[in-house]
């Protein structure tokens, strides 16, 4: 019994480092022979997602889920995001000649732009997303605010710019979404546009592009878009300046 235990312990001591070091043993070099760590590998994966070189990924690669979870909970993620909203302000102050006639507008995404879905995704990275579970989580209205976005939202409002929220969330989540937004401090938007059955057939990029076109036809001057997905800013943007927040957790086409 004692001996078996010691043997198991010894075996474990050998096995654990092997599992942890698994990645390094198999892939310690890039195709060009550069020696890299798992952190190097995952950081370059994350960077290339943000550069939009890696597209249409279904899940975060298994070997990088720990790294990505750490990143989205880190100060670096907050600093990266805050830099984005600061650049929005620089742009507003230097390049936007606001008319202040009630037609100046700014568009925001909701998830991982105004509200954080990290509490949901941190346990689901690397898995194919279960939409039912995600919508169940959203319907509870417990998503926290991203505080830099909240500050920017309030700054936009104080400058008399109309705020339009365009989200890939579906209509049945409307009241939960409004409650969630208001509870964490967002209020005073002009429009909240969600997906309904008539526009669920087109891609998110096409849907958002159609909404922008509609808003322009109503006389809005859209100065900018703040989102976390490229699909929020794809298609015919008509020269609208778009700012992208970091989001290495999921990809919406
Ligand atoms: C998806 O989530 C729902 C709700 O939590 C659950 O009932 C269902 O079993 C899940 N489906 C899969 C395939 O995991």
From TrEMBL:
**One MF term from GO for this chain?**
nutrient reservoir activity
Keyword terms of this UniProt record: Glycoprotein, Signal, Storage protein
Q: Which gene encodes it?
A: 25484381
State its role: May function as somatic storage protein during early seedling development.
- This protein's superkingdom? Eukaryota
What name does the UniProt record give this protein? Plant acid phosphatase
Spans traversing the lipid bilayer: none
Keyword match Signal = yes
The secretion signal range is 1-21
UniProt source species: Medicago truncatula
Name the family the entry cites. Answer: Belongs to the APS1/VSP family.
What Pfam families does its record include?
Answer: Acid_phosphat_B
Q: What InterPro entries is this protein classified in?
A: Acid_phosphat_B-like, Acid_phosphatase_pln, APS1/VSP, HAD-like_sf, HAD_sf
Q: Does the keyword Signal apply?
A: yes
């Amino acid at each position: 019994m004692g001996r078996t235990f010691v043997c198991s312990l010894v075996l474990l001591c050998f096995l654990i480092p092997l599992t942890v070091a698994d990645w390094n043993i198999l892939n310690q070099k890039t195709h060009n022979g550069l020696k890299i760590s798992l952190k190097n590998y995952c950081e370059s994966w994350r960077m290339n997602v943000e550069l939009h070189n890696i597209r249409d990924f279904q899940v975060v690669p298994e070997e990088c889920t720990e790294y990505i979870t750490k990143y989205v909970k880190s100060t670096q993620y907050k600093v990266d995001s805050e830099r984005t909203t600061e650049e929005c302000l620089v742009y507003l102050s230097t390049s936007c000649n606001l008319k202040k006639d009630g037609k100046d507008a700014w568009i925001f995404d909701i998830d991982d732009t105004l509200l954080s879905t990290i509490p949901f995704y941190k346990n689901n990275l690397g898995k194919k997303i279960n939409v039912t579970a995600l919508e169940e989580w959203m319907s509870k209205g417990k998503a926290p605010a991203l505080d830099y976005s909240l500050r920017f939202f309030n700054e936009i409002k104080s400058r008399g710019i109309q705020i339009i929220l365009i989200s890939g969330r579906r209509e049945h989540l409307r009241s939960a979404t409004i409650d969630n937004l208001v509870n964490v401090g967002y209020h005073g938007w002009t429009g909240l546009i969600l997906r309904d059955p008539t526009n669920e057939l087109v891609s998110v990029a096409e849907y958002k592009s159609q909404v922008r076109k509609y808003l322009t036809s109503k006389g809005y001057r859209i100065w900018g878009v703040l989102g976390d997905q490229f699909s929020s800013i794809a298609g015919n943007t008509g020269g609208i300046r778009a700012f992208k927040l970091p989001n290495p957790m999921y990809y919406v086409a």
